[in-house]
Each structure stands twice: as C-alpha cells, then as structure tokens.
Amino acid sequence: MADGPVVTVRGEAYREVPPELARFTVTVTARDRDRETTLTKLAERAAAVRVLLDGTGSAVDRRETGDLRVRPETRRATERVVAWHGAVTTTVTVSDFTALGELMLRLADQDQVEVAGPWWSLRPDSPAYREARHAAITDALDRAREYAEALGARVTALLELADTGSERPMMARMAYAGGPEGGTPELDLDPQPQPVHAAVQARFAISEPVLG
To answer: Which InterPro entries does the protein's record reference (predicted)?
Structure first.
C-alpha cells in the first residue's frame, strides 16, 4: 500500500495493421448409390486437390486435413439406404497473398469442390501485439502525468500494472471479378486491415499535490 496520494489510470492503444496470414477451406464431396464408389470418388478428388497444393511450392505455408464425413442417405421413415455422401475438408494457410486468388480459383475449378474464405489474421506472435501493449503502457503513463500535473504534483513510482485484455478479431473481405470473355477468370482479393487493441490498468504514486 502506498502511504501518499495515488492516481489510477487506464492506458489503451489501437492499431490497424496489414494481415499476415490468410486461411481458406477446400471441401471435396462425392455421392453415389454404392458406398465403395462414393469412397473411391472421394479419395480420387481429395488426391487431385493434394496434387494441386503440392505443386504450389512455397505459396502454401500450412495445410491441415480434417472433418471427414461419410453418411448414408435413407428413404423417409425407413432405414433403406439410397445413396452415400462423402466429404473431406482441408484448411489451407498462406502468407503470400499475391498467389492467393489464383490458387483459390484453381482449386474451385476441380470437380465437386467447394472453396470458402479467405479469413485474414495476424500470426499469434505478431510484433503488432507487442507494439500495441507498449503503446498502452505509454498511454497510461502519459495520463498519470497529466493528472499529476493538473494537481501540481509529479509521478514518483509505479505501484501496479495489470493487462486488462486485448482484441484479436479476424475479418474477411473478398471481391470477385470475371476475366475477359473466354479467358481465365480473375479473383481480386482485398486484404482486410487487422485491428489490434491493448489495454492496461495502472496505479502510480504521485508527490503531494499543490492545492489552492
């Protein structure tokens, strides 16, 4: 506990920075009356997507395959199977945005493939977060000094500093523009600036105010 006067302030910092990553999903589907045929189609189409991704070289930072679903389609009120549905989803992460639009279009051109995204984000260890936290601390100190100055006092010591949280939203914006007639379509992507927010709560000891 401080023996003298104390000022408590909140420091904040807000930045908008370019995204560092873009993620999108590629879902391959298959349907047939025969289960084995459905699985074969699904495996072949998933393999075609893998081959395409393998050919991108360093354009793809990371890919993760998950959400494999195979389900029967039955007639209403019966258990008679009339068809089998299969789907497998791969999440693709890229940091080279120059190749992103072309890659998504090439994947979407595959048979029975759905492409969704992109979702823009920063890396978990992005320097933008550290810079925002530092700026929030500077803001807290500036505020404390302003209050102390208004009282004819000065800041003498930091008593407590607490991180009150930050926001790391991910947002997406995508624009599609068809290419010339008969030519290859073009996909124009607008990377969405990423808001970075940091806030701290700080308590400072100040010298005796000069009142009156």
So the answer is: 26kDa_periplasmic_antigen, SIMPL/DUF541
Helix axes 35-54, 100-108, angle to 10 degrees: 160
User: CA 198 to CA 11: how far, in whole Å?
Assistant: 8
Global pTM value: 0.77
Cis omega (within 30 of 0) for bond into 118: yes
For 16-29, what is the HEC assignment? Answer: EECCCEEEEEEEEE
The class of domain 6-18+125-206 in CATH terms is alpha beta
Asked whether the CA dihedral 58, 61, 66, 67 is positive or negative, the reply is: negative
The residue written with tokens 């072949």 in the block is 44
Domain 21-121 has CATH 3.30.365.10: no
Q: Rounded CA gap, 83 and 76, in Å?
A: 13
Rounded to an integer, what distance in angstroms lies between the CA atom of residue 84 and that of residue 73?
6
pLDDT along the chain (212 residues), means of 10: 85 94 94 92 93 87 88 81 91 90 90 92 94 96 96 94 71 39 63 93 93 70
Q: CA 10, CA 62: separation in Å to the nearest integer?
A: 39
Q: Given this model, what pLDDT does residue 90 score?
A: 93
Every domain of the chain and the residues it spans: 6-18+125-206, 21-121
Task: Write down the residue that tokens 């290419």 correspond to.
Answer: 179
